[in-house]
């Protein structure tokens, strides 16, 4: 820390004492913390428009009083223990106080539980957890370096808030070739959560009804709810969506939007069959409903080529396709995109300009260069193979436990990053046992829109984020729950 804002008391004399008092008061207020560096005498003299010797005299005074020490070749810094105790200080980062101010928080904002994050557990079976340690950072590095060496200056300014043009063109090519999506405008976002939020703001008025899978993705639901929408659960069956139920909802409930995860249903990982996709699309077209298709882990499909998204065959232009780089890279990259009909794009782009002018385009630029080079698709092929091996490993381990007599059952998922495991009415207990043994997993109850529907049967076991040996160790500890 070199810069330090000081308030001098003009009535204190002489000048060096004015400066010394201002610095000790900055220390008391917590502006600088124990052991933190202070500005050099030259710097401070420049800042205060005074003589360097006056500042040095101030520092000598503070050293004598026990506030400051001088360290060879480093300069002045605050001492470890202050010379007197006071309730006013130190206000350090660890010691941020909470005022009693009564905030009038919008009732549409609800508190999320601030639990320990999944990655802090020794064994992390979080369902959508990619293996960040396997990401080829070294491969991306030259492209990031290239973005900084030869930046596209015009893109770094305000304006053009759809996102980085090179990245958009690469995503458009990729979507056309790998996902058969041809007739949509791409808008980039800082992660697909931002897309869900933007869509909510643009399409939902308070009181609007959104049909969602009855077991589903809570962060999307929260985005809809903060726009004042009401959620209506669509019944599911083990192989997809109860179309009869959805039809009744659409006919009777004035639904304005349907949110789906068709390729690998979240959290059950079931792939929505073609005949149900067609029926849902026809229903939406007949009743003039938009569909959000959240295709969050498209590449990770193992048994066959992934089914083409609903957005690939969308003559009415009603499908809003949302996808992310959080799974194919890592969640911290905060890069996602939506592919929408030309008629919707301007409203979304305009709304974004209210919220955030434009997304962070520098990272997009580097990824665009990475994609253009072809290294991105090599990375996808490699990762898909690794995750398939991990799925196979988890399947064979689970089968081993089954033959040992454990009451568990599952359907091998055709893709995705998790297995939806039936543990026969032990779901919450198993989750709690896991958490107590440093194992992160989530049980069925967390995924229900209507908690009353919870049967306490399933847990979601993510397999992508851990190497097989570690996964197997975690499973052995987890399943010791059954043989206690
Ligand atoms: C259903 C679903 N959608 C989207 C995402 C990704 O969200 P984001 O792009 O905001 O990281 C996830 C990640 O867990 C998910 O499970």
TrEMBL record:
Molecular function terms, GO-annotated: DNA binding; DNA-binding transcription factor activity; pyridoxal phosphate binding; transaminase activity
CDD domains hit by this protein: AAT_like, WHTH_GntR
Pfam family, one: Aminotran_1_2
Residue ranges of every copy of the HTH gntR-type domain listed in the record: 13-81
UniProt keyword Transferase present: yes
Keywords: Aminotransferase, DNA-binding, Pyridoxal phosphate, Transcription, Transcription regulation, Transferase
Domain of life: Bacteria
Keyword Transferase: yes
Transmembrane residue ranges: none
Family under the similarity heading: In the C-terminal section; belongs to the class-I pyridoxal-phosphate-dependent aminotransferase family.
PANTHER family with a match to the protein in the record: HTH-TYPE TRANSCRIPTIONAL REGULATORY PROTEIN GABR (PTHR46577:SF1)
Protein's recorded name: PLP-dependent aminotransferase family protein
Organism of origin: Shewanella hanedai (Alteromonas hanedai)
